[in-house]
């Protein structure tokens, strides 16, 4: 039988928002806690808006982050501007925290390349959303290698799902990070499902953090629905990496409360009871209960917050809607630093086809 | 059981999979989400319930692995039908396709073989996210030892998939996702395979041969109708099996018409159309009335959903190329 | 810091051929021990012959198995005929033990496809030598899956080097084997080097057996220079797999006493002292000393054995040399089960080119 | 430092790598055995000693990873020069090449880019083990956003590799292993790059254009000499950059000669020659005297060492095709 190896699991707040032990010192900063709450609330509201926009045909397929707001919020906050995020596609929370504008995120999912051409100063070197599963882990190691080569005190942070941890790219990257002691942090959003494939059919590893052992690097679990735990452990991992002490794998244990994407219908393969049970552990209510307990939050503040965020989101949607149609020639203009002359004719042909489509370029 | 109501292509594929699995216990299905979920496009619906998890396997998320284990299963005489969720995710399996699947028979001089099928949705036009609109069939068609098949209707999907599964060698089966639900046909679920390695002539004509495959046949056929109104009589050939290419059918047609246009979604340069153009001019140089033309996707990254339609060959472009080709010598 | 997890390490005979603890019961069978000795001696002599044949241009690049004879000998013996071997390229010992003829092995390395078309009954379903690193691990999982699907009590055994354990194929395969509980055994020949890259630059995993932990399967180390230990542990792993108890990873710790292949010159990157130190642990002398101690072996028997083996090897070389030139058309004849008519012309062209080369097809 | 003694191609490559690393601290080298061992073909000899392990990195054995980290490094503005030990092992990196390296600029509309170079030995004829004789450049040339370069002499290897490294976009640099040590030339180590995206005319002629690249140019040039003796005056073009293809140079030549033969080692069907043939007949249909022909490798698995030479285009086949093309209309 495989050895059973203990992996640490960190949780600060239980489902009721009660501390399940001593809290880290930084929890004394009420502003940080309120920021977390505000941000997670924004993420959820924005996420709902994205799903609604997809349902009404205003954007394409969208991957909801419902129930997993704590992870990206915490990790985006734990990073500094100098660090680089190499995300996957379920990182709305992280991208927002990094400063990517909501209208850019909408543009991306709306099928517009300009959505990855953001100008947010804190995210200028961040990678775009990565769709081919786990490939981003290799890019993160490349970015971290660049930091190491140039001896910059910066950290590459990459995210992926539980399913992604089965793919060679992820495993090869962990191995490299270990042997090169790269300044990289792997954050796994273990939301228990890879589309219809449950965690139990993805790997026999007792925890996904065990995969770190194979690479000789530290691996640990956190309660991914406890923003305090996620923030605390990822911050420590990032600072370890920055200090030249090597990579860490942090598995955030959470649950995908939504469908895989708007193209999916999870009721086909997922038990309704499992879902309603999972709702009991979701991250926002938990933090809210804690804040209530601390006297930092009340119903009125909540109402006000919802109104504020609603306005921000509506403004972003407006900005997205009024984005002028992109120049179809851009597909060639950004193919190379400079377009070789011999591509001109094809570019012209593309413009003709685009023009023929006229207003109907969308469908 | 004979199914008589019209079905769409993805249903026809599902029928063929059910049929093949029922007829041959060596047929197994594997891939991501092909089990209880029935495939993200619903091509494998009902297989898991009917044939059980032993023969319908949800794999971990790893395309290298999916391709590689299909090779291992096939070497044991199973007939694995592996699904790659989108063609854009096939690349991680390339090493196994190029260095193993296509060669196992040759490397062992026939001691082992690799009767696997790899199914994957192909092509753009469904406004899916990035990397979901790939048509890189040329990468596979260039590899010696692989068969590459692209059906263009529910009936051909049914018959060609049965043929692919029955074939004793590896077959890549590319399913135009744009056609999955857009066309319906009555498909006799009679277990009858269609011939591989054979083009289908979808429309006869004497002036101009239009050669295409998969979803682009929709625009090609439409262009043929439109050109007919202008008095240009087009023959339309569905290549169906890109590799090995049925040159005979294409050459016979162009031998008759003296003119040829190839239509495909894939990028133009080093694309599949180049082979057909090269072949036609090699063989029919002295009877061609005009250069073989290509109406294709472009040599840029296929745009995201909002502008992807501008990338795909449209009816106008095909018609315009047709008119030009007819003008031929007068240029 | 990563958790340090103990991995078991098995050795029965020390460098001096002294038992380093209690020996397994089967060691009482002198014939088995003599078989091991005979076979390892054959492997070494044949291996030397292969290197010599390469040096004189009679075969192409060859990967010597010098110093690693115990692994393949033991594992080939531990397998039954019903099992399937999915080897890599440093498996001369294993192939010989499986019954593949020496002249087939020579043909393969001599650049002749017929070398993988062997007719040895015990190896008919075995895979040919695999050059693309680690890909064979996936095939082994496929073969094992076939056994599972058909509910056959058979085991797939696959081998690879230490370098190969870094490649996605290996890691994805381990993961699958774990989650599907496949009847497969992964045998790693950790000979400390992947061409010029030392084990320490390959992975920070404390042992390569640790990689099993990431897949939730048992992993262990054995002294790869102790044929008793290798045989014992691999036999147990195979029987576990056969009994439906799942996969095992067995890391055989050994040393590549030769160059990587005949194209390599290890003196460019490897310390001479390391090499001479490694010679002290090589497997054949060790078993010989044990046999001597048991009164099962003496100088005369050794002389006789060397003569016998020399003759067998020479006969095989002769058979290889007198193999008639292959039909160049075979490249097409075995491309598909049936060659489509339209390949005929190319086949003819190939024959014309081959004929033009005449006797010089070899260079 | 100016090097004046003749060097072979692998030494020229080594000179270029030394030069690029010395001139630009952002140039880094990575791959299997590129460090203390200096590369299995000795292309990276001395780099590790001179520039240290930080800039000359032996990676773990994982081609997906090598390709992927090169993308990450390049996105940070480094200029990684990654070595894949043989072209037959490039496939595991295909996903990163197709879905990332070639697209990073396009996907981010220029916010990020990917100035990486991937070097790998190319082609057969050195009697190496199986999978060591691949020439699958068509798979890469079809991918929008990649440049694909194949040098054919020490001097061109030096100048084109410098150009590839200086280029702000991804370049696949295929090094014909058959030429690594077989030809010597004086190479000025002057840091001068040669132009990418440009064909080189190696021999002028008026009757027939022979188009080739890499190692096959050896047989092509030999065939040109032999045909000259028969009174057939061949122009020989070294394509050098397969993608983007310098159609102008090829078309100008064929416009003059009216005849064209393409010679390559790669398998014929859907091979690189198809694109050139398709292009030439598209553009020059009315001035061609004979069909464009291809003399290529075959659509079978490249044989192992013992018979691999029969797979490669030989001088006889090129000459025969040349004579046939000259007979042209008389057929
Ligand atoms: C290489 C590749 N294979 C398949 C897919 C299709 N696909 C998209 S998401 C997904 C499941 C991913 O699950 P997980 O890693 O757990 O992330 P989650 O979506 O649950 O956050 C799959 C199979 C893909 N995008 N890339
Ligand atoms: C995919 C792939 N990449 C690179 C190579 C070239 N290569 C051949 S052997 C080797 C080193 C393998 O080392 P290891 O796995 O330790 O096995 P060993 O040769 O030491 O037995 C390399 C890099 C290859 N054959 N396949
Ligand atoms: Mg998941
Ligand atoms: Mg090794």
TrEMBL record, chains A, C:
Keywords per UniProt: Oxidoreductase, Pyruvate, Thiamine pyrophosphate
Database matches in InterPro entries: Alpha-ketoacid_DH_E1_comp (IPR050771), DH_E1 (IPR001017), PdhA/BkdA (IPR017596), THDP-binding (IPR029061)
Cofactor(s), names only, from the UniProt record: thiamine diphosphate
Gene Ontology MF terms: pyruvate dehydrogenase (acetyl-transferring) activity
Domain Dehydrogenase E1 component: from-to ranges: 38-326
Superkingdom: Bacteria
EC category name: oxidoreductase
Primary role: The pyruvate dehydrogenase complex catalyzes the overall conversion of pyruvate to acetyl-CoA and CO(2). It contains multiple copies of three enzymatic components: pyruvate dehydrogenase (E1), dihydrolipoamide acetyltransferase (E2) and lipoamide dehydrogenase (E3).
Protein name: Pyruvate dehydrogenase E1 component subunit alpha
Automatic annotation (TrEMBL), chains B, D:
Entry-linked InterPro entries: THDP-binding (IPR029061), Transketo_C/PFOR_II (IPR009014), Transketolase-like_Pyr-bd (IPR005475), Transketolase_C (IPR033248)
Short name of any one Pfam family annotated for the protein: Transket_pyr
Matches recorded under PANTHER family: PYRUVATE DEHYDROGENASE E1 COMPONENT BETA SUBUNIT, PYRUVATE DEHYDROGENASE E1 COMPONENT SUBUNIT BETA
Cofactor: thiamine diphosphate
Transketolase-like pyrimidine-binding domain: residues covered: 7-182
Gene3D superfamilies: 3.40.50.920, 3.40.50.970
UniProt xrefs under SUPFAM superfamilies: Thiamin diphosphate-binding fold (THDP-binding), TK C-terminal domain-like
Domain of life: Bacteria
Claim: Iron is one of the keywords in the record: no
Keywords: Oxidoreductase, Pyruvate, Thiamine pyrophosphate
Lineage: Bacteria, Pseudomonadati, Pseudomonadota, Gammaproteobacteria, Pseudomonadales
Protein name: 2-oxoisovalerate dehydrogenase subunit beta
Keyword ATP-binding: no
Role description: The branched-chain alpha-keto dehydrogenase complex catalyzes the overall conversion of alpha-keto acids to acyl-CoA and CO(2). It contains multiple copies of three enzymatic components: branched-chain alpha-keto acid decarboxylase (E1), lipoamide acyltransferase (E2) and lipoamide dehydrogenase (E3).
Record GO terms (molecular function): oxidoreductase activity
């Amino acid at each position: 039988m495989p050895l059973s190896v203990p992996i640490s699991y960190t949780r600060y707040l239980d489902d009721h928002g009660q501390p399940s032990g001593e809290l880290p010192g930084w929890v004394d900063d009420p502003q940080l806690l309120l920021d977390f709450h505000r941000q997670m609330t924004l993420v959820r509201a924005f996420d709902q808006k994205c799903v609604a926009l997809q349902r009404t045909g205003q954007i394409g397929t969208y991957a909801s982050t419902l129930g997993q707001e704590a992870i990206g919020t915490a990790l985006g906050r734990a990073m500094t501007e100098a660090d680089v995020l190499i995300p996957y596609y379920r990182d709305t929370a992280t991208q927002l925290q990094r400063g990517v504008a909501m209208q850019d995120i909408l543009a991306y999912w709306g099928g517009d390349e300009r959505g990855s051409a953001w100008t947010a100063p804190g995210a200028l070197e961040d990678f775009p959303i990565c769709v081919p599963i786990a490939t981003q882990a290799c890019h993160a190691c490349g970015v971290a290698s660049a930091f190491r080569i140039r001896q910059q005190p910066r950290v590459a942070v990459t995210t992926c799902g539980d399913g992604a941890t089965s793919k060679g790219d992820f495993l090869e990257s962990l191995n490299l990070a270990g042997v090169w002691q790269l300044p990289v942090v792997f954050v796994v959003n273990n939301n228990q499902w890879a589309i219809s494939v449950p965690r139990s059919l993805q790997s026999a590893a007792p925890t996904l953090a065990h995969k770190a052992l194979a690479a000789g690097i530290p691996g640990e679990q956190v309660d991914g629905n406890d923003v305090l735990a996620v923030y605390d452990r990822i911050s420590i991992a990032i600072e370890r990496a920055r200090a030249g002490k090597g990579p860490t794998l942090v598995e955030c244990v959470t649950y995908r409360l939504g469908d895989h994407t708007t193209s999916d219908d999870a009721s086909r393969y997922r038990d309704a009871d499992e879902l309603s049970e999972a709702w009991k552990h979701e991250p926002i209510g938990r933090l809210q209960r804690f804040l209530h307990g601390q006297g930092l939050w009340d119903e009125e503040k909540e109402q006000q917050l919802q109104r504020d965020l609603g306005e921000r989101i509506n403004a972003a949607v407006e900005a997205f809607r009024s984005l002028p149609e992109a120049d179809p020639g851009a597909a060639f203009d950004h193919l190379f630093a400079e377009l070789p002359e011999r591509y001109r004719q094809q570019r012209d042909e593309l413009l003709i086809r685009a023009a023929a489509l006229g207003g109907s370029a969308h469908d | 059981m004979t199914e008589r109501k019209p079905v769409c292509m993805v249903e026809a594929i599902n029928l063929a999979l059910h049929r093949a699995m029922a007829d041959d216990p060596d047929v197994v299905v594997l891939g991501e989400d092909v089990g209880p979920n029935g495939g993200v496009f619903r091509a494998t619906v009902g297989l898991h319930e009917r044939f059980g998890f032993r023969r319908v396997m949800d794999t971990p998320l790893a395309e290298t692995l999916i391709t590689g284990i299909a090779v291992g299963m096939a070497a044991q005489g199973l007939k694995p039908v592996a699904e790659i969720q989108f063609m854009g995710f096939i690349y991680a399996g390339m090493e196994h396709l190029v260095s193993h699947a296509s060669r196992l028979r040759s490397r062992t001089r026939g001691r082992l073989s690799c009767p696997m099928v790899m199914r994957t949705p192909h092509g753009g036009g469904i406004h899916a996210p990035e990397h979901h609109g790939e048509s890189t069939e040329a990468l596979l068609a260039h590899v010696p030892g692989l068969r590459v098949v692209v059906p263009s209707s529910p009936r051909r999907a049914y018959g060609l998939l049965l043929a692919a599964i029955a074939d004793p060698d590896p077959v890549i089966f590319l399913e135009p996702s744009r056609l999955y639900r857009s066309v319906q046909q009555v498909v006799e679920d009679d277990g009858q395979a269609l011939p591989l390695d054979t083009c289908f002539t979808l429309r006869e004509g004497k002036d101009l041969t239009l050669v295409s495959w998969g979803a682009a046949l929709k625009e090609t056929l439409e262009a043929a109708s439109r050109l007919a109104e202008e008095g240009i009589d087009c023959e339309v050939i569905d290549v169906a099996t890109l590799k090995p290419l049925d040159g005979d059918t294409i050459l016979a047609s162009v031998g008759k018409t003296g003119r040829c246009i190839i239509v495909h979604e894939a990028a133009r340069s080093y694309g599949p159309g180049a082979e057909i153009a090269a072949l036609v001019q090699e063989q029919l140089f002295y009877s061609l009335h005009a250069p073989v033309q290509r109406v294709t996707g472009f040599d840029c990254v296929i745009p995201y959903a909002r502008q992807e339609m501008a990338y795909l060959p449209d009816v106008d472009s095909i018609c315009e190329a047709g008119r030009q080709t007819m003008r031929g010598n007068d240029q």
